[in-house]
Design a protein that fits this description.
Blueprint lengths: L12 H16 L2 E6 L5 H9 L1 H4 L13 H4 L4 E4 L10 H39 L1 H6 L8 H24 L6 E4 L7 H14 L2 E7 L4 H11 L3 E4 L5 H8 L17 H11 L3 H18 L6 H11 L5
Parallel strand pairs: 1-4, 1-5, 2-3, 3-4
Length: about 325
């Protein structure tokens, strides 16, 4: 999945339930399993909860990355999608370790920013000692020997203070979210459990429910006694709330998308509250409206959009 910034995220009721589930995993140090049909928003919700679209783009002292330190300060959640095929046993723990290192780097950067003013001030005082030599070539100091020693000691202490604080800083990871957890084979599941056992990090596994409820129960049993959360499609009332303000990115739609009750009812019926399908269907609705010079999303427009997507009878 691309790490480019996406449209504004809408915190639906289902997302708030997911957030409470993740908070519980963090608070109670449990392994959790989130499941649900494809397209209901599990991955989007997990990335939003982890602030991952921002964290993954952050680069210190690189303004062109478009992310500031304040955007990532306090980040404590890792988001990881395992590959479809794992070619080596160490790949999963190594990749997750690198992502945890990214969070730790953010924290070390925070310490560096706190200590840098003192370090820079001490450095300037030491640099001033050598100004006469640079100006005249004479090997002498402009201050007494005890002042020279004081300035040099202060600079060393400032360096040691920052280094000690960074070395003492523990891994800040509070939760590891595994997207597409159904890709993990038994070895991968055991590796996730080993990460949990070694570090006490909470793990939230996200998977589609295409294999049925029995697969979810087995997966939960393999991971550990923990939390299981079902990510459900949006209800009709929530779809209407969503449509009152949200639009797919780059798609022109009527300002009052809810003007035609039959059209809205058809949209809800066809999509069944599936967010991914709602996004795609509205994209086609916008195209059909533009082609035909229409300004209202009617039932006929929705049906025409459904036929273009070939999603079956509603």
């Amino acid at each position: 999945m691309s790490d480019a910034p996406g449209p504004a995220f809408v915190e639906t009721k289902e997302y708030r339930r997911f957030r409470e589930f993740c908070d519980a995993c963090r608070r109670d140090r449990y392994i959790g399993l989130c499941h649900g049909p494809p397209g209901v928003g599990k991955t989007l919700s997990a990335r939003h909860y982890a602030n991952w679209d921002i964290v993954s783009r952050y680069q210190r002292d690189t303004p062109s990355c478009g992310v500031t330190f304040e955007d990532v300060r306090g980040s404590r959640v890792v988001f990881y999608t395992p590959p479809v095929v794992v070619t080596s046993p160490g790949r999963l723990p190594n990749e997750i370790g690198a992502l945890r290192g990214r969070l730790r780097d953010v924290l070390l950067d925070d310490i560096r920013r706190e200590e840098l003013p003192r370090l820079q001030a001490a450095h300037r005082e030491v640099e001033a000692l050598y100004e006469p030599y640079r100006r005249t070539g004479e090997n002498c100091y402009p201050v007494p020997p005890e002042e020279v020693a004081r300035r040099q000691d202060e600079w060393r202490r400032a360096n040691e203070m920052m280094t000690e604080r960074q070395r003492a800083q523990a891994d800040p990871t509070a939760l590891i979210v595994i997207d597409e957890a159904d890709r993990l084979k038994m070895t991968g599941l055991e590796q996730m459990r080993d990460i949990y056992d070694q570090g006490g990090h909470r793990i939230d596994a996200d998977r589609d429910a295409g294999a049925g409820a029995s697969a979810v129960a087995v997966c939960a049993a393999v991971l550990a006694d923990g939390f299981v959360h079902e990510f459900r499609p949006l209800g009709p009332a929530e779809v209407r709330v969503l449509l009152s303000g949200w639009r797919p990115p780059g798609i022109s739609l009527p300002e009052n998308l809810l003007a035609d009750a039959e059209g809205v009812a058809a949209l809800i019926r066809v999509t069944g509250g599936n967010f991914r399908l709602l996004d795609r269907l509205l994209s086609q609705v916008g195209r059909i409206l533009a082609i035909n010079g229409l300004e209202v999303m009617t039932r006929e427009v929705v049906e025409a959009a459904r036929e273009v997507l070939v999603i079956g009878a509603a």
